[in-house]
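Severity: low
Component: inverse-folding endpoint
Summary: output formatting inconsistent between runs
Steps to reproduce: submit the following structure tokens with default settings.
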């Protein structure tokens, strides 16, 4: 992990155990560590933009009486930066629950030896690398991840959920009338419709969730650590906002979205690619039913 400056932002109480462990892991006057230490959660939030950290470490004792709210605040402020929390042994339950609030891992005070600390920091660096590579795989029109980028991050999110016992909800949306809109509106008009669809779907999800444009007319969103009942709620939210949006599109033609939603839990044996294919198959099956209905109607008209 040497050869480059590794920027870490640390919020820690008076003991200094984490700071000392980091300096032992990166020793010497020409250390590869660029460490910024602050004493409060508020100071950490103010320092994120100034220090541009690659990893954030948070002492949960600074967040009392509600340490999980402190985790949520930090994650909301910097959802793309890996967050590692550490806590006293008596607060281990809070540390474990912080994984579902945005932290990628936790450490316990008194057990932050070099090997353990290096392990969690390496995971943070790998996460940055994966997301950095995925950033190269974005759709130029919408800025959303393309299929390769979305699959890369979805696979990573599933691996994390397996370790933490987390859950995933995947929503796929297909613009059913993409071809007719393209004929009606032309290239500039269909590009605007695509951007509107991306914004509509994105408005229904959190900043920490992943959004993708998987094809010309297909979009996807992955909600991390969302409870199973949220699947129907998310579908209804998209449908409701679509109805409102279509009112504003008049006199242009409305957007027609076909939706598929799936739930994945930590005991589910499917890979992310299999999970994605299962949800996409809902769209394909619905398309096949519509096609068959259209064929039967044509046959009746001919008779």
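Observed output (run 2 of 3):
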């Amino acid at each position: 992990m040497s050869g480059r400056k590794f920027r870490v932002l640390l919020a820690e109480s008076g003991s200094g155990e984490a700071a000392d462990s980091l300096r032992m892991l990166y020793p010497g006057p020409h250390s590869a560590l660029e460490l910024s230490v602050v004493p409060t959660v508020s100071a950490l939030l103010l320092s994120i933009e100034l220090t541009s950290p690659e990893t954030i470490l948070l002492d949960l004792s600074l967040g009392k009486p509600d340490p999980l709210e402190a985790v949520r605040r930090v994650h909301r402020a910097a959802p793309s930066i890996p967050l590692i929390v550490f806590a006293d042994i008596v607060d281990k339950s809070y540390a474990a629950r912080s994984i579902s609030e945005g932290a990628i891992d936790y450490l316990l005070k008194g057990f932050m030896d070099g090997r353990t600390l290096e392990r969690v920091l390496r995971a943070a660096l790998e996460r940055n690398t994966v997301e950095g590579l995925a950033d190269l795989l974005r759709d130029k029109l919408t800025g959303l991840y393309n299929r390769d980028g979305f699959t890369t991050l979805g696979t990573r999110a599933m691996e994390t959920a397996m370790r933490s016992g987390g859950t995933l909800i995947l929503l796929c949306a297909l613009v059913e009338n993409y071809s007719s809109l393209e004929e009606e509106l032309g290239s500039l008009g269909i590009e605007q419709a695509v951007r509107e669809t991306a914004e509509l779907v994105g408005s229904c999800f959190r900043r920490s969730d992943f959004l993708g444009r998987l094809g010309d007319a297909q979009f996807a969103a992955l909600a991390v650590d969302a409870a199973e009942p949220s699947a129907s709620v998310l579908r209804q939210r998209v449908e409701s906002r679509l109805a409102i949006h279509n009112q504003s599109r008049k006199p242009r033609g409305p957007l027609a979205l076909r939706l598929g939603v799936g739930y994945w839990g930590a005991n589910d044996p499917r890979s992310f690619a299999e999970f994605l294919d299962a949800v996409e198959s809902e769209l394909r099956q619905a398309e096949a039913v519509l096609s068959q209905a259209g064929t039967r109607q044509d046959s009746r008209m001919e008779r």
